[in-house]
Amino acid sequence: MNNKFGHIFYERLKDLREEKGLSQTELAKDIKQVTRSAITKWELQYSEPSASKLIIVSDYFNVSVDYLLGKEND
Predict the structure, then answer these.
(1) Domains plus CATH for the chain?
(2) Global confidence as pTM
(3) Which of 28, 16, 23, 2 is nearest to 65 (CA)?
């Protein structure tokens, strides 16, 4: 996945996770509906999350889906 979606989402997911001081495993345990394997694949840009997973991640970090996708910066 070498498109803008993957690059922005990858960076923002990793940044948000690291800001909370979480490993991929800890994040997966907190979210429950997302596996560590999925988080790894997203951060390595091997796969893209579904719309429902984007919403779960955005709710967890209290950011908008648009922020995760790079459509807004706040």
Answers:
(1) 4-69 (1.10.260.40)
(2) 0.85
(3) 16
